[in-house]
TrEMBL record:
<dbReference type="Pfam" id="PF07228">
    <property type="entry name" value="SpoIIE"/>
</dbReference>
<feature type="domain" description="PPM-type phosphatase">
    <location>
        <begin position="23"/>
        <end position="111"/>
    </location>
</feature>
<protein>
    <recommendedName>
        <fullName>PPM-type phosphatase domain-containing protein</fullName>
    </recommendedName>
</protein>
<dbReference type="InterPro" id="IPR036457">
    <property type="entry name" value="PPM-type-like_dom_sf"/>
</dbReference>
<dbReference type="InterPro" id="IPR001932">
    <property type="entry name" value="PPM-type_phosphatase-like_dom"/>
</dbReference>
Length: 114
């Protein structure tokens, strides 16, 4: 499992093979993307790997960001946004490989509750 924390301030990639333990705290507005090697090792017809960093930035910029007035509504809007962003990410992976993945691929995008 690999991870990248994509934030408005930039990306922080954590290499699980170099660190026995990574500890951090997500702040409001930050998100953590966990993904398997099937995502980043997905290849197009020319053998090029999938560009996850660019896809993450496109996913975060795509679609409307819901606005809400209460904490519960904010949480619901964030959940919808995370689902949309994951959908956008996997649509990009599928397009990159021509529709058929040759490896399993999984991703989980997390955000702090408060």
């Amino acid at each position: 499992m690999h991870s990248v924390a994509a934030t408005a301030a930039g990306d922080q990639t954590v290499d699980p093979y170099r660190a026995a333990l990574y500890r951090g705290r997500l702040r409001p507005g930050q998100r953590l993307l966990l993904y398997t090697d099937g995502v980043i090792e997905a290849r197009d017809g020319a053998g090029r790997f999938f560009d996850l960093r660019s896809a993450v930035h496109r996913a975060e910029r795509s679609g409307p960001r819901a606005s809400a007035t209460s904490r519960d509504a904010d949480a619901d809007a964030d959940e919808v946004t995370l689902q949309q962003d994951l959908g956008t990410l996997f649509t990009a992976v599928g397009a990159h490989v021509g529709g058929v993945l040759k490896d399993d691929a999984a991703a989980l995008w997390l955000r702090p509750l408060h």
